[in-house]
Specification:
By secondary structure, this protein is mainly α. The chain contains 6 helices and 2 strands; from the N terminus they run H-H-H-H-E-E-H-H. Helix 2 crosses helix 3 and helix 2 (about 40-55) packs across helix 4. The longest helix has about 35 residues, at about 5-35. The chain is globular, with a radius of gyration of 19 Å.
Length: about 150
């Protein structure tokens, strides 16, 4: 094995290890944030999907969150009771419902993630725009790979 191949393989192994560590740390952060907000992990995950992609119908939310639609009833009940989301009639189909995040609660949520966001801003400041574009491309491709691997197991 030549040194380039060895160096590439070593770097790949280290990168995968770093991604696992990052995944673990983000899970721990989300668990702590959820605990502070008295939310289950899955509630926080669904709220994130709703805030990023919403308003969404329950079926679309279930697909994006990787959950069975029947599981969402309890999650949405908890989020609605906590004042995080509202269910509204879909203007395109009066029989359907859309779930919308209530932005007035987001300040509390963002405050709990402020430390991580500030740290990421500092880290990003050390990279050029081109380097950030490369990192963003890598993360998008890694996310797509994770989505594909998840779908294969479904």
């Amino acid at each position: 094995m030549n040194s380039v191949t060895y160096a590439h393989r070593k770097a790949t192994v280290e990168l995968k290890g770093s991604l696992r560590e990052l995944s673990n740390q983000l899970s721990l952060l989300n668990r702590r944030v959820g605990s502070r907000l008295e939310m289950k992990d899955v509630d926080l995950d669904c709220l994130d999907v709703i805030n990023r992609l919403g308003p969404l119908g329950p079926k679309a939310l279930a697909r994006e969150a990787g959950l069975h639609p029947a599981t969402l009833t309890g999650i949405l009940d908890r989020l609605e009771k906590g004042g995080w989301v509202a269910r509204e009639a879909d203007p395109a189909d009066r029989r359907a419902t859309l779930v919308r995040g209530l932005r007035e609660r987001n300040a509390e949520l963002l405050g709990l993630f402020a430390g991580m966001n500030a740290s990421l801003d500092g880290i990003c400041a050390d990279y050029s725009a081109a380097e950030l574009d490369l990192i963003t491309d890598f993360l998008a491709r890694a996310t797509a790979a994770g989505r594909g691997a998840t779908e294969e197991l479904t």
